[in-house]
Structure formats: structure tokens, C-alpha cells
Amino acid sequence: MSDNRPLAVIDSGIGGLAYLSWIQEFLPQETLVYLADRKNFPYGTKTPAQVLEAVSEGVEKLQHHYHPKALVVACNTASVVALQDLRRRFDFPIVGVVPAVKPGAQASKNHILGILATDRTIQDPYIQNLIHTYALGQKVVAFGASDLVTHVEEDYMNPDPVARKTLLDSWAQKFLKEKADVVVLGCTHFLHISQELQTALGPDVKIVDSRDGVGKQTRKVLTEKGLLAQEKSGADVFYITAGADQKNELDQWQEKYAVFAKRFHLEYRGVLE
């Protein structure tokens, strides 16, 4: 069995592109549709109800226009808050992003585990359950870094090098002060700056993320359900969302996201209505 319909990927912004990149490399026959929900960015500072409403609206747009065979929710906050509801609401397979607490805890030698995520992810009971299940007995130091999410989304392409280094150093020092030897990246946006964060943390701290695990789970789900494509059915495409009250920012957004699309070999299609 095979299915050449597109595979959809959604995030609040550019964070999920790191996961899309994995799919492009290891499942090159798949046709991809990426949606950056700029209208509702950032998810990490919203209430659970607001996150669920935002993600559901985006998935409905994808379903209406593309009828995807499956969906990757490439956002920790959205996955933690909304994944169960999305699976009840939509009839296609949905793969979420889970903060890599289990491999992070397994990798820690001194049993001091750091987690860097969004405020909403840190506050959600889901991550506390992960910690209780996989890091019981370890000291866990978890921080919500909404300022870092915004920095990546707004300034990734053209950063002020001094400002970025200062910001990353400040977060690195929080973990170094607590003597964490592993830091789990619990927000997809942070994968874009993982190398710079590694430099700030130094060689004695290991960074762990969920990209490989999520990619392999996506491949497993598609394989088990007979949904793997035999060949691409069209171009890989990139869309954003925008609200009626965001017209003043739209031109700037369009220019920026077109650059991101090109970098990840996507055809930029503008706003998905």
C-alpha cells in the first residue's frame, strides 16, 4: 500500500522546520505542506484553551485545502496541550513532539537534568508526568524561555550578534549554576540555535532534542498504516496564517518567511485562508 497525498506539518512559526528537514532527508518521497501559525504566535504564553483553539483552526485550514494523510504537530506546547483533542477531532494520524525527558534523563551522569521550553510547556501537568516517569530521583531544573522563542522567530536570520550571545549566555548560566550536565530542548524553535547554545553551555553539558525520535515515529506511523508515498505528488510548500488586524505586519512577514521557505527547499505560498 502507498499514499501520495501530502504530509502536513504545523507549528506556531519556524520551529517545526527542523522536523520537516528530517522528513525531507529520510523520507524524500513525501510531499510536505508546512504551516506557520503566525496569526497566533507565540503559543507558549497562551492559555491551554487558546492554544487548542489556535491549533485546531490551523489544522482545519490544512484539512480543507490539502486533505493531508497525516499531520506532524511540530511544537512542544501544542503537542502537550492539544494532541489528545486533535486526535479525537480529526480522522488522520497525528504525531506530536514530546520533550525528550526520557533520553535526557538517561544521558545525565550527575542526575541533574535541565529543561528549556516555553512557559506553557513547563507549567503543563504533562511534562510533570514525564519527569515523574522518566527522571524520578533526579534533580530537574526547568525554565520557560519565551524571550528566546521570540528572538528566534523574529531575529534568527538577521540577529544582533552581541544581543544573541548575551541572551544565550544568560540562559546557559542558569543551567551551569545548577550544575546540569544535560539540557533538553523542549521547544522546537530552540533547535535553530542549538549549536550556539552548546557553545554557551560548554563541552561538559550535553544538549538533547526530540527531532530524531519524532522523525522515526512519523516514519513508523506512515509505514504501519500503509501511508508511505511512492513518489512526490507536487512541490513542498510553506504557508503562514495572518489575522485581519495584522495587515500592517504582513508584508514584512511575507518577505521573511519566503526566505525561510527557500532555505528549506519549500515553495512559499503566502497566507492560508
Quick overview:
The protein is an alpha/beta fold and 273 residues long. The protein has 11 helices and 10 strands.
How would you describe what is shown here?
This protein has 273 residues and is of the alpha/beta class. It folds into two domains: 7-97 and 212-271, Rossmann fold; 101-209, 3-Layer(aba) Sandwich (Rossmann fold), CATH 3.40.50.1860. The chain contains eleven helices and ten strands. It has helices at 17-26, 48-66, 76-89, 101-107, 119-123, 125-134, 146-155, 161-177, 194-201, 211-224, 247-263; strands at 7-11, 32-36, 70-73, 94-96, 112-117, 139-144, 182-185, 206-208, 237-240, 267-271. Strands 4-3-1-2-9-10 form a six-stranded parallel sheet, sandwiched between helices. The protein has a four-stranded parallel sheet with strand order 6-5-7-8, sandwiched between helices. Helix 3 links the parallel strand 3 and strand 4 (94-96). The model has no long low-confidence stretch (mean pLDDT 96).
